[in-house]
Amino acid sequence: MIDPVSRRLRAAVPVVMIGLLLLTPASAHAWLSQGHARVTRAAVESLPPTLPAFLRENVGTIVGASLDPDAFRSPLAPELTAQEGPEHFFDLEMVFPGGAPASRPATQATTPTPGATQPAAFSLPPNRYGFLALCRERNVEPNKVGLLPYAVTEWTQRLAVAFAEHRRWPDDPAIKARCLVYAGILAHYAEDLTQPLHVTMHYDGRADAGNRSPRSGIHFRVDALLGRPEIEAGPVDGASEPQVIPALLVHLTGEIARSNAMVDQVYAMEKDFPPGDVQPWTPSPAVKAFGVERLRAATSLTASLYLTAWDLSSRIKTPDWLAPGTQPATWPAGGSSRR
């Protein structure tokens, strides 16, 4: 695709592979998906027993759904691709030139204290429509900036609504299925947020004055790191215990700032990242430490979002007309068939 909103997909796949992607099944680049699968599985397995057991019992379904957001971007579904692309990234510098004011140097960009809401490194409007207005004020195109923090926030809340339905109707299989799918989709966006090159305008080589990427291929190589077997220390080992996040969007700005603060570190290691799917590969100590830390950060964030959604669900009231098997004769009071 030439449309700018699909650029993360193009950044992740060298031009020489595009023909193969169009002509072969998804398994042609499934190794990149191994990172999402690895983190999602670890996040589910790290959940405390207070969350429903069916999540752990059906972890494979959640893992499978975590790959769907990338599948939503297809040359044969251009309208969906245009909508989906910006959900995967957030070019911080385009809205906040120079990066987040409170970003710490990369050498200090470590995993946050468990349970602590990250300081607001920058302030975002409370919803995506407010952010669209902010982009207009700053004369930037929102589809080029990206909407990743809102994707994470909204899917956390969708999962909370599904969890609320499960609390009320715990034996309904359709509700359980929705929970599993929503959990997988949420995991994908959360894990994208912890990849430094998903939260910067320098997403595939240093951008020029016109914010154009040189397509250096580094994005593809960093994406590959998440699933490499050479990063032996699994994301569960040393990952922070999942915690309820009290101020979600504020917390996510801190996570974005932390990822963005690692961009210089990533470029300093550029020559050391794995060369695609070539085996074997020996990581440098710096790359290995970076990979392990990001695996742990992604696992902790994903699991904490699940716990946050479960906590929120306890306060959501589900209307009677949602009861399985009911067909309301009339629309709920104050509602309509259109809204």
Topology of this protein?
Elements: H1 7-12, H2 15-23, H3 30-45, H4 53-57, H5 59-65, H6 68-71, H7 78-84, H8 92-95, H9 128-137, H10 142-145, H11 148-168, H12 173-193, H13 218-225, H14 248-260, H15 263-268, H16 285-313
Helix pairs in contact: 3-5, 3-16, 5-12, 11-12, 11-14, 11-16, 12-16
What are its keywords?
single chain, P1 Nuclease, disordered N terminus, mainly alpha, 0% strand, 339 residues
Describe, in plain words, how this protein is organized in 3D:
With 339 residues, this protein is mostly helical. It has one domain: P1 Nuclease. It contains 16 helices and no strands. Helix 5 crosses helix 12 (173-193) and helix 11 (148-168) crosses helix 14. The protein starts with 6 loop residues before the first helix and ends in a 26-residue tail after the last helix.
